Amino acid sequence: MTTSHPGQELILSSDQIQGRVQEIGRQITRDYQNKKLVLLGVLNGAFIFAADLCRAIVLDLEVDFIRVASYGASTVSSGAIRLLQEPGIDLAGKDVLLVEDIVDTGTTMAWLRDHFRQSPARSVRVCSLIDKKERRTVPVTVDYPGFDLDRGFLVGYGLDCAEQYRNLPAIYSLK
Question: For the whole model, what pTM was predicted?
Fold first, then answer.
């Protein structure tokens, strides 16, 4: 898809996204050989990315989802983090990879990273499709970044604005 939707500017095409997902999948496959990998997707935004990513990883792995509240219907994080849905998988002795759609201020991801580092998991790392480092207010490292972007409010490929636009196959900036 090369054209913009009304009110949106194309930032990343579906082909660009899929190419990068495959690259990240190969890197994770190399890094987690002979380990017990658990992908923990952060709902709702990461569901599409997590689905594509798990298919790009050539390892036996487990997949689960967690749900966090920090935005609600707003476009600005409230700063108060609540884990609404815990993983259903036992994490003891396993390597957890938190899969997120976008890390911007870092508030939510730093909280999640610290939360799961206190669990019985063997290790906790972060994978995010979009890394908006210039908006960072809390230090957090994205171990597997998809794209470093700094412009606009992004939607599509799971990213939303008030629960709209998640179904777009590419990533757009709302004008």
Answer: 0.91
